[in-house]
Amino acid sequence: MTKINQWIEKYILQIVTVFLFCQPLLDVLTSFSLHYMTLPVTIGTIFRLLFLGFLLYYFVFINKDSTKKKSFWYLSILFLYLASFLIIVILKKDASVFLYETQGALRTFYFPILLILLMPILKQKTVLTGKQYVAIMMIYVLFILLPILTNTGFDSYTQGKVGNIGWFHSTNEISAILSILLPFCMNQFTTSPSQKRIWIYRLICFLLILIVFFSLGTKMAIVSLGVVLCTYGIYFMIQLYQKGKKKALGAVIATILIGMSLIFVLLPKTSFYQNIKIHLEFLEVENPIQIITDPEILDHFIFSSRLSFLETTSKNYNKASNIEKLLGIGYIENYATDEMNMKMIEMDPFDLFYRHGVIGFLLFLLPFLYAIGQAIKREKQDKEIRHKIAFYLSLVLTIFMSIFTGHVLVAPAVSIFVAVVLWNVNERVVA
Fold first, then answer.
1. Is residue 244 within 8 Å of 188, Cβ to Cβ?
2. Cα–Cα distance for residue pair 263/119, rounded to 1 Å
3. End-to-end CA distance of the chain
4. Mean pLDDT of all residues in the chain?
5. Residues forming a β-bridge with 341
6. From the CB of residue 41, how many other CB atoms can be counted at a distance below 10 Å?
7. Contacts of 100 (CB under 8 A, 6+ apart)
8. Number of other CB atoms surrounding residue 363 within 10 Å
9. Residue 395 in contact with residue 228, Cβ under 8 Å?
10. C-alpha distances in angstroms, 354 versus 19, 364, 422?
């Protein structure tokens, strides 16, 4: 056992890195299992839980970090809470909901547990370089583009809207992953290459990423793309202006204008534009001002009716007992009644609060806020502004998407990248 532990300790970073590169494949296998097989647990869930078990083994038997004792107490309290949550759920409902509620709880709390277990591994060493961020992004991109070219991909939406998600299953989750990785890819694309031919490779990668973002058909992917491109564009214009490089500044501005013109010309042919048009026609919106002035249209168009689901769940939470308000009402509302509801709000903070109550909500936030605080402290020591931009853009997009579209902090496929971004900031993610 000692030799095994020594081997794990020596290669732990490589093991974590390999697992991160396996994420696109796990998502594809999960998608095919959901489409063509009937399984109680998806392939992705199985492997991610096994990985979590492996990290737990490392934490207990190999980890020698100074924060181990505090982390152990947190994990003990969290597991005690989860046990209490499931007991209350069974008592308030019945034993038949145990598996469903357990899956929901494990899926939700995968992220804080992962944050704690990755902390002693990643807080001292970098697990992903800039090139590796790009490589993972391009694997996701190819698993979307190849199915589009071969006409073997899945639709982003089951009805009404258009879009292609390749061989993946969840449009929101894949959009979130691509959005979180995008700032680090832009950071890598904008570094000075050692060879001119690298610019051609980067340009091809960037164009493929653009095609995928517009093919998905989701609003959030385009918002993320716009925010990242605008931020880096403004940064480079400011840098060139301060250095007095007027010709280079003019070239950058010209490139931006040409790019924007091409986007406007090609935009009507994209899934994103078609979905906007379909949605507005469905809502019978004649004047865009209606989107802002009419609360029902605002909810439907901007939030995809999430505010309506929020209102329903909020009412059910308010009717719950005090113990349920503390521990959570679970993932099945109004169980065994005509008003039974299993629909998630898909706004992570609200799903967290109502499903797991005040205690669960605080336990979830504690390691997340701690990791953000530690990451910001480390970023303050970095003198390279581009690195800071990549980190803060990724963090802001993570929080923004978790609030407005969900499927970020409570989705293991996405949250594993959030965890890596938060801890992977000691050594610079370039080169």
1. no
2. 41
3. 36
4. 87
5. 333
6. 12
7. 331, 332
8. 20
9. no
10. 32, 13, 26
Q: Which residues contact 57 (CB under 8 A, 6 or more apart)?
A: none
What does the alpha-carbon distance between residue 192 and residue 199 come to, in Å, rounded to a whole number? 9
Amino acid at 141: V
Quick one: CA dihedral 58, 67, 72, 26, positive or negative?
Answer: negative
Residue with tokens 């953000």: 372
Residue 333 DSSP SS3: strand
Token output for 219: 């609003």
Interior CA angle at 75 toward 322 and 335, to 5°?
35
SS3 381: coil
Q: Please check whether residue 88 is in contact with residue 360, taking contact to mean a CB–CB distance below 8 angstroms.
A: no
* Residue 173 CA, distance from chain mean position: 6
* Helices within 64-129 (DSSP H only): 68-92, 98-122
Tens-place pLDDT, residues 225-248: 999 998 988 888 888 778 777 777
Kindly tell me if the per-residue pLDDT of 426 is higher than 50: no
The answer to whether the beta carbons of residues 408 and 398 sit under 8 Å apart is yes
Q: What is the pLDDT of residue 427?
A: 44
21-71 pLDDT tens trace: 999 999 999 998 888 877 777 888 899 999 999 999 999 888 887 778 889
- pLDDT score of 66: 75
Give the pLDDT of residue 195.
64
More confident residue, 180 or 33: 180
Q: Give the whole-angstrom CA distance, residue 204 versus residue 289.
A: 39
Closest CA to 108 of 394, 351, 337: 351
Which of 4, 9, 17 shows the shortest CA–CA distance to 424?
17
Name 109's Cβ contacts closer than 8 Å, sequence gap at least 6.
78, 82, 360, 364
Q: Coil, strand or helix: which one is 410?
A: coil
| Tokens coding 390 | 């990549």
* DSSP string computed for 227-256: HHHHHHHHHHHHHHHHTT-HHHHHHHHHHH
Find, among 430, 420, 376, 418, the residue nearest to 13 by Cα: 420
Q: Is 343 helix (H, G, I), strand (E, B) or coil?
A: coil
Question: The whole model's pTM is what?
Answer: 0.93
Q: What is the mean pLDDT of residues 214-229?
A: 90
Which tens digit of pLDDT belongs to each residue from 84-129? 999 999 999 988 899 999 999 999 999 999 999 998 887 767 778 8
Q: Measured in whole angstroms, how far is the alpha carbon of residue 54 from the centre of its chain?
A: 22
List all residues 6 or more positions away from 312 whose beta carbon is below 8 Å from its beta carbon.
Answer: 333, 341
